Amino acid sequence: MSDVLTVTDFSVDYLGEQTVHAVRNVDLTLGRGEILGLAGESGCGKTTLAYGINRLLKPPAVITSGKAVLHSREGTDIDLGSLTGEELRAFRWDRVSMVFQGAMNSLNPVISIRAQLEDIFSTHRPAMSKADRRTRCGELLERVGVDRNRLKSYPHELSGGMRQRVMIAMAMALEPQIMIMDEPTTALDVVVQREILLEITRLRDELGFAVLFITHDLPLLLEISDRIAVMRAGELVELAPAAQLYNSPQHAYTKLLLGSFPSLTGERAAG
Ligand SMILES: Nc1ncnc2c1ncn2[C@@H]1O[C@H](COP(=O)(O)OP(=O)(O)OP(=O)(O)O)[C@@H](O)[C@H]1O
């Protein structure tokens, strides 16, 4: 499998009276079409790493070392750190998109779902005809399991789960190579969460994008990820295929983390 993203020696500090070294010298690669899980307890730096890769950090955060390079479908390498302003904005929806925990609340309450979806195409694909845009929006919504009748709805008329699905549809709209998902289903109930996760893995199989999936929920990651990276206090302590990480964890912290989920240890005792 070729790689779509290479992150090398990536470090981020939050400057302040007490500087926080939130991400320290992280190296990782993301394969084309791979689901890479990023696990670790709250505050270990997962979100900072994801935002850093996508250049979404704001002061007092500073990238102190390293880089993130995207290997495009066309065969060129793009250093995300070299992009500025407009380039970066275009790049974000087009090549790398992001769905975060509260994303469903970032839909504009006074604009219909149709208009919000269409806006992505009118901004990023200005040559697309109005008819094509309409068709595409309907298809996108159905792809994430929402009836296209909902295009005319306003966000408050949809459940939390549906709104989050709309956000996933928006993130997929331009067929990016990478989707970064930061606790995308955490605010939803377990059944809805499951449905959406199945949908994401199915869509990945269908469309071939890679996913960097961030959550503190290790059992969930074991289920959906190809490989899992474990982060602790800003550092990646282990990165291995999911089954290998579960069956023969190498790092003491990975063992501790696995042991902290009763469902996992219960299954182990039973097996
Ligand atoms: N704006 C900020 N200013 C200073 N320190 C920050 C800021 N944002 C985050 N941090 C610190 O950086 C570290 C990493 O935080 P981050 O949010 O990346 O962790 P996380 O693993 O994503 O946690 P969670 O799962 O709770 O979101 C933490 O110690 C946090 O307190």
From TrEMBL:
<dbReference type="Pfam" id="PF08352">
    <property type="entry name" value="oligo_HPY"/>
</dbReference>
<keyword id="KW-0547">Nucleotide-binding</keyword>
<dbReference type="GO" id="GO:0016887">
    <property type="term" value="F:ATP hydrolysis activity"/>
</dbReference>
<dbReference type="InterPro" id="IPR013563">
    <property type="entry name" value="Oligopep_ABC_C"/>
</dbReference>
<keyword id="KW-0067">ATP-binding</keyword>
<dbReference type="InterPro" id="IPR003439">
    <property type="entry name" value="ABC_transporter-like_ATP-bd"/>
</dbReference>
<dbReference type="InterPro" id="IPR050388">
    <property type="entry name" value="ABC_Ni/Peptide_Import"/>
</dbReference>
<dbReference type="GO" id="GO:0005524">
    <property type="term" value="F:ATP binding"/>
</dbReference>
<dbReference type="Pfam" id="PF00005">
    <property type="entry name" value="ABC_tran"/>
</dbReference>
<dbReference type="GO" id="GO:0005886">
    <property type="term" value="C:plasma membrane"/>
</dbReference>
<comment type="similarity">
    <text>Belongs to the ABC transporter superfamily.</text>
</comment>
<keyword id="KW-0997">Cell inner membrane</keyword>
<dbReference type="InterPro" id="IPR027417">
    <property type="entry name" value="P-loop_NTPase"/>
</dbReference>
<keyword id="KW-0813">Transport</keyword>
<keyword id="KW-1278">Translocase</keyword>
<dbReference type="InterPro" id="IPR003593">
    <property type="entry name" value="AAA+_ATPase"/>
</dbReference>
<feature type="domain" description="ABC transporter">
    <location>
        <begin position="5"/>
        <end position="258"/>
    </location>
</feature>
<dbReference type="InterPro" id="IPR017871">
    <property type="entry name" value="ABC_transporter-like_CS"/>
</dbReference>
<dbReference type="GO" id="GO:0015833">
    <property type="term" value="P:peptide transport"/>
</dbReference>
<keyword id="KW-0472">Membrane</keyword>
<keyword id="KW-1003">Cell membrane</keyword>
<protein>
    <submittedName>
        <fullName>Peptide/nickel transport system ATP-binding protein</fullName>
    </submittedName>
</protein>
